[in-house]
Amino acid sequence: MREDEPPGADISGVAESGGGKPSLDTALQAASLADRRLREAIEAMPQGIVFLDEEDRYILWNERYAQIYEKSADLLQPGVRLQDALRIGIERGDYPDALGREEAWLAERVAQLRQPGLRHEQRLSNGRCIMIEERRIEGGGTIGIRVDITDLKQKEETFRLLFERNPLSMLVFDIETGKIRAANEAACALFGYKAGAMDGLCARSLFPDSLWPEAGPRLAGDTSDTRDCWEMLRRDGTCIDAVIATRRSALEGYTGTIVSIFDVTERRRIEQRMAHMARHDELTGLANRAHCRERLRELLDDGANGTETITLALVDLDHFKPVNDTYGHHFGDIVLTEAAQRMRELIPPEALLCRIGGDEFAVIFRRSSLTQAELVSKSIITTLSEPFFVQGHMIHIGATVGFASSPYDSRDGETLLRYADLALYAAKGERRGTCRGFEAGMDAAAQEKNRLEKDLRAAVRGGELAVHYQPIVDLQTGAVECYEALLRWNHPERGQVPPDVFVPLAEEMGLIDQIGRFVLHSACGEAMRWPAHVRVAVNVSPLQFRNGNLLSTVINALSTSGLPAERLELEITEAVLMEKGPRPAAIIRNLRAFGIGISLDDFGTGYSSLSYLLNYPFTKIKIDKSFILNLQEESSSRAVIRAVIGLGRSLGLTVAAEGIEREIERDYLRGEGCTQGQGYLFGKAVPAELIAAASQPAPSQAA
After folding, report:
1. Residue by residue, what is the 3-state secondary structure of 214-225?
2. Burial label, 373 (beta-carbon count in 10 A; 0-12, 13-18, 19+)
3. Which of 156, 279, 488, 564 stands the most exposed, by the fewest C-beta atoms within 10 Å?
């Protein structure tokens, strides 16, 4: 039992009495102090400490030991034999491993006590795991150390589960032997081995011989760099692409690395496929636009000294859109594929054939003269003019080619592309099915068009466009019944730009919707200032129908201005009616349902199918001015005019004639029963503020 240290006790110098021998009291004090210091020392230790005598009886233990064996703490008494305490603990169920084999477990535990120096683990019923290490001390007793390794065991179990059941392939690599100590199931499956069959396998067998000098140090190192891709071998000799990450660890009994292997074979295949797709057309397998530009730039850079001729030819398929519209895109794809094959057979070995758009192709000629490139281009036109046979149908297309060359036209790739495109545009404008090279004047024309586009954008943005109004009169009374809204552009430098110049340009630039809204709102607002019987007519572009916003634009213009729908007429051309699909018909019927008049403009030109008049709810047809101008000279013109007027009368439609400039024309049309007239005879298009009283007939028009 512990005793208190006497006040002032000092064992550094023991008092002597009688003959120099220490007194009994002093010796007892020193022993008591040593005992207390021992107890303090073992209490300060984080491990559980126990002292047993030569007969395995408890002598001394610290508080940590008692905490570890908290369920058996009541058995911890000096003089109690360890075996007896264990037996009672077994009966209480304190030692789960002893269940069902109590005596055997106790015998094993006593045997371990008789062979000190060996570590072993012990599980307790509270779920803790204890590491036991025991050693004999001088005098025959035993000192035992208990370490709670529960957290460590849990981490080991977690690691084992993460390792063995991880879907990621993992290996344990022994740096000294170069062998695999362990491989999880995912790794065995990846490399084609049965579970556990890779244990002890030489790691170099997983790599081609040429890669092992680099792969060996990588396995032995500590790296998480996953940018490098390694070729690895499966058991059957096939290869996989893998990314390797390693973590060096001090493992039990040896130094090794935990190797994680990421199988990127499929990813690499997809990446290669994507890289190919990024530079090639999926349908035809030809180089795409990006590849074309890249190759052109490379060739021009290599031939920068100007000694090599590089020719770029752009091939545009003619009449291809009707193939898609008539037969569908499946037929179109077949035609494109065969067209590509025909061209592939014609180009020289060092030329590159590309598909750069829907029906646009390009050929980059290298080490070919201009004459050779032109001959090949003409051969392409010839072969593509031959019929295509697709699923029993004979299809005819064609091709037009424009080309430009370096160093003659330009040494810059982008400029060369632009010049070839200008040549193609000129060839298509002149006559399809031809081949044309770039000329300097084409660039000047393109620059002029570009300047006009910029000016038009500025005019739209700055409100420089104006709406003028030309009267449409009753040919019998001469009274103005309607004004046609006509767009005008007075350029500050160019002067009056004709509508047939800037309107198609606006359509090409995507400005027609914005301009159309402006004209509709202006015309409806202005018409509110006219007499109630006078209508306003506004031309509508086919693109406005195609874009699908026309109906809402018209309704918005009417509601904003307050103009009754019956006072608005929309003039459309046959181009609107030739659009495929139900949209144009639906829009026209919806507009008519609101009471808006629908006029078929330029009737008699183009196809002028009579089915249009039967299938659409028109209220007016306008005879094109080309027939009026030839009225006196051409009997056929008079026959057409007479037929159209009769047709309109039969269908209950208003018939208006355009381009009337002379009284004789007016009189003839009036005599034939034409309802309305329009032309310089009745007045030119003028700004809204110059319009005279709409209801008054012109003096020269009195009946």
Report:
1. HHHHHHHCCECC
2. buried
3. 156
Q: Are 342 and 402 in contact (CB under 8 A)?
A: no
Single out the residue of 552, 451, 570, 443 nearest to residue 502, CA to CA.
451
Residue with tokens 């126990």: 50
pLDDT tens digits, one per residue of 44-74: 888 899 888 888 899 889 998 888 888 888 8
Task: List alpha helices for 61-211, DSSP H.
Answer: 63-68, 82-92, 102-114, 150-164, 185-191
3-class DSSP string for 253-281 = CEEEEEEEEEECHHHHHHHHHHHHHHHEC
Q: Would you give the end-to-end CA distance of the chain in angstroms?
A: 146
Residue 421 DSSP code: H
Mean pLDDT by 10 residues, the chain (703 residues): 42 45 70 77 86 88 89 88 90 89 89 78 87 82 85 66 74 90 89 90 92 90 78 91 85 80 84 82 91 91 72 93 85 94 93 93 90 93 93 91 91 91 89 88 80 90 92 94 94 88 87 92 94 94 82 93 95 77 79 93 66 82 87 82 89 92 92 94 91 48 38
Percent helix, strand and coil across the chain, each rounded to 5? 45, 25, 30
**Distance between CA atoms of 89 and 103, rounded to whole angstroms?**
12
Q: CA–CA distance from 601 to each of 552, 575, 616, 668 (Å)? A: 22, 10, 14, 21
Question: CB 660: neighbour CB atoms within 10 A?
Answer: 27
Alpha-carbon distance values, 517 to 68, 460, 480, 509, 572 (Å): 89, 12, 25, 16, 16
Q: pLDDT, tens digit, for every residue of 359-411?
A: 999 999 988 888 899 999 999 999 999 999 998 889 999 999 999 998 888 88
- Using N-to-C axis directions, what is the helix angle for 413-430 and 440-462, rounded to 10°? 90
DSSP 8-class letter at 5: P
**Angstrom distance (rounded) from CA 459 to CA 308:** 46
Cβ-contact 264, 243 below 8 angstroms: yes
CB 662 within 8 Å of CB 630: no
| Structure confidence at residue 568 (pLDDT) | 96
What angle do helix axes 102-114 and 82-92 make, rounded to 10 degrees? Answer: 150
- How far is the C-alpha of 474 from the C-alpha of 325, rounded, in Å? 42
Is the C-alpha dihedral spanning 190, 191, 192, 195 positive or negative?
negative
The residue assigned the tokens 């898609």 is 324
SS3 294: helix
By CB neighbour count within 10 A (0-12 exposed, 13-18 middle, 19+ buried), where does 671 fall?
Answer: exposed
Find the angle CA(161)-CA(163)-CA(167) to the nearest 5 degrees. 100
Secondary structure of residue 30 in the 3-state scheme: helix
Q: Residue 77: beta bridge partners?
A: none
Question: 433: exposed, middle or buried (C-beta count within 10 Å: 0-12, 13-18, 19+)?
Answer: middle
Query: DSSP E strands: which ranges in 407-504?
Result: 435-437, 465-474, 480-491, 495-497
Dihedral of the alpha carbons of 584, 587, 589, 593, in degrees to the nearest 10: -170
Q: What is the total residue count of the chain?
A: 703
